[in-house]
Amino acid sequence: MELLTVHGIKVPLTPDEVSPVIWQALTSGRYEAKEAKWVFKAVRPNDRVLELGTGIGIITSLIAKVPGVRVWSFEANPSTAALAHRVISANDLGNVFLYQGILTAGEPCILPFYVREDLWMSSMDISQGPFQREISLVSTNIDEFIADHAISVLVMDIEGAERDLLIRSELPGVERIFLELHDHLYGLSGIREITQALAVKGFAYDPRGSYGHCVLFAKEQGVRAYEPGAFEVTE
Fold first, then answer.
1. Can you list the positions of beta strands (E) in the chain?
2. Considering its fold, how many domains does the chain have in total?
């Protein structure tokens, strides 16, 4: 087994445990590089973070290294969740609680999940492309989970399912939401629906914590601090 280091996180994996595309992204340092850089705009010391879409646990581990933070993370794919558990354990992170399952808005229900070769393409969307197998998962209500665990930050990368989740959930007590948008699945109309639904809940798009499809929505009161150098033009 090889011990990779990706974004400062120990990743004990072998090439045959992930697809060639994922392995190349890991060894080149491109794996979730934007998320690894920008998630720190959303997570602050002592936050209580709910992460949806653990993947292999690299972003999870980065979040967990923020002082005082506790992380509850959900991964739907059983084999990917097993890899994430290994990565989290290798980094000696006792403040991460990893679940294999899914959270949704509304009453718990049984949902199909489509496992694909590239783990970051696995999703509940059958139209996203060819899949290796279909599994069934029983969902848990996200609002109840957030309330029970006093969650302050939501981090999510769930391959398009964010649209329905953010529109239908209440997100009690959540102050910041950092997510990857998937406009190739629901278009600009889907982004409009997400933005409008979050605005009703009191969230605004935060340009200082967003980059491309990795975006931060936040609730904030008072004057925002000026960041020196943020608007300097470089050649």
1. 2-6, 9-13, 48-52, 70-75, 96-100, 102-104, 110-115, 133-141, 153-156, 176-180, 204-211, 214-218
2. 1
209 belongs to a structural domain: yes
Ramachandran quadrant class, 139 (left: phi over 0; alpha: psi -120 to 50; beta: rest): beta
Contacts of 73 (CB under 8 A, 6+ apart): 50, 51, 52, 54, 57, 60, 84, 96, 97, 98, 99
pLDDT in tens, 166-218: 999 999 999 999 999 999 999 999 999 999 999 999 999 999 999 999 999 99
Q: Say if 233 falls within a structural domain.
A: no
Kindly report the average pLDDT of the chain as a whole number.
92
Separation CA 36–CA 7 (nearest Å): 7
pLDDT at 145: 98
Residue-range definition of the domain harbouring residue 194: 2-218
Asked whether residue 181 is domain-assigned, the answer is: yes
Residue 183: other Cβ atoms inside 10 A: 14
- Encoded amino acid at 74, one letter: F
Give the pLDDT band (50/70/90) at residue 224. Answer: low
Other CB atoms within 10 Å distance of the CB of residue 75: 28
Task: Round to whole Å and give the CA distance between 175 and 47.
Answer: 10
189: domain CATH number is 3.40.50.150
SS3 of 20, please? helix
Sign of torsion over alpha carbons 34, 3, 83, 103: negative
Q: What is the rounded distance in angstroms from the CA atom of residue 159 to the CA atom of residue 174? A: 21
